[in-house]
């Protein structure tokens, strides 16, 4: 079973120098297969750094991470990532963006068409297959981004504040759609955000981190029933969790 | 301004207006009774020189000789620049190895090589093409390197996390992301090719547009000199426009419009 274990991980930028900065210290976490976990914390708590290391974009200075017992080092299609910035390739149409990963591995034309059709529909972009990214809104480009990662069929989905740049309405819509896609595929999702409501609404579990150096402060299990509906954001239970977590964040 | 009809403020009309004004002023000066046509040939003389050389075949011969050198030198120089620039811009080891060399050579104007090229290779066709190739290479390679270095990191990361190898990232991300820079490199190289060509032909060539310029100076054929200048301007303009059309075509995905 694909399971991610973060084992006593510490990371220091500029190691050995006078300006050495420890951003993460003694992080231990286990992400079970098919779970949805959010990591929250104020800026500077190292949550993005942690996610990027899980993607394999760089190595931790101490400790390790394992996927199914195998030490993570370097990038791998099994760990897909959605970035905060717009990462859609502007020189490819929507469809070509979606089928990028399979094309890398030599998928046939008909396989590519099939994947493009499936995932453009899944992310609600049917009819936009041949558009250039510049013709789409920010929210739509994010959909392309998510569809592209899904179409690549990773075991784990790492999401680094993917909706951070979107307006409130678009954001809520994207959250609902993301949950729907997750419900169908049940991939392990690790979702970094600074938005408490987003974290609670989406997750089975919310990891709260404190800053400088980044440490795990609290782990909250969210037992709200699934499938989650927008109205849940206003229930007492939801608000209670939010209030509790809000008190823990450094303000 | 709103009262003016639209075509009066349009690109075409205003462009024609400024060119027309210059031609008119030139005509006004050259039609003065005390104007010396050997220094300032009137426009009809310039046009006359064009037709004389056209029917004698000298103009087309010179044009082909020059175009051949330009296109060959441009092709060799830019092709090498793209290969070298991509490697230097993408692979750190190659950069550390080759970049100091490029930086050392870059400030030297290509025309400074003329004497040494003549000493080594003589006044041959090869020497002229070599000089143009060097000029094109130097201006183009800098742009290709810049293009490679400006590939947004998030695209590289996105491709890597989808399982792309370093070479696949290079091929599917770095090259297309750097295309705008590379095309700009081509256009600057084209301009450099013309500059270098004329200089090379002025100094040592038995044919070509630069040769005709030199010939015009020697025999005091000012109208011929003027005519060749206009021809060079027109050729360079047409080639640049062609490039811009190609650029627009290739960059259909880009937000920035030419």
Automatic annotation (TrEMBL), chain A:
Domain of life per record: Bacteria
Magnesium keyword on record: no
InterPro entries, sorted: AAA+_ATPase, ABC_transporter-like_ATP-bd, ABC_transporter-like_CS, ABC_transporter_ATP-bind, P-loop_NTPase
Sample GO molecular function, one term: ATP hydrolysis activity
SUPFAM superfamilies attached to this UniProt entry: P-loop containing nucleoside triphosphate hydrolases
Pfam families: ABC_tran (PF00005)
Keywords in alphabetical order: ATP-binding, Nucleotide-binding, Transport
Nucleotide-binding as UniProt keyword: yes
Domain ABC transporter: 4-236
PROSITE patterns associated with the record: ABC_TRANSPORTER_1, ABC_TRANSPORTER_2
Family, per entry: Belongs to the ABC transporter superfamily.
Full protein name: ATP-binding protein
Taxonomic path: Bacteria, Pseudomonadati, Pseudomonadota, Alphaproteobacteria, Rhodobacterales
Automatic annotation (TrEMBL), chain B:
Transmembrane segments: 71-92, 104-123, 130-148, 193-213, 219-239
UniProt topology in membrane: Multi-pass membrane protein
Pfam families named among the record's database cross-references: BPD_transp_1
Record's keyword annotation contains Disulfide bond: no
Signal peptide from the UniProt entry: none
Keyword Transmembrane helix recorded: yes
Purpose of the protein: Probably part of an ABC transporter complex. Probably responsible for the translocation of the substrate across the membrane.
Similarity comment: family membership: Belongs to the binding-protein-dependent transport system permease family.
Record-given protein name: Taurine ABC transporter permease
Gene that specifies this protein: tauC
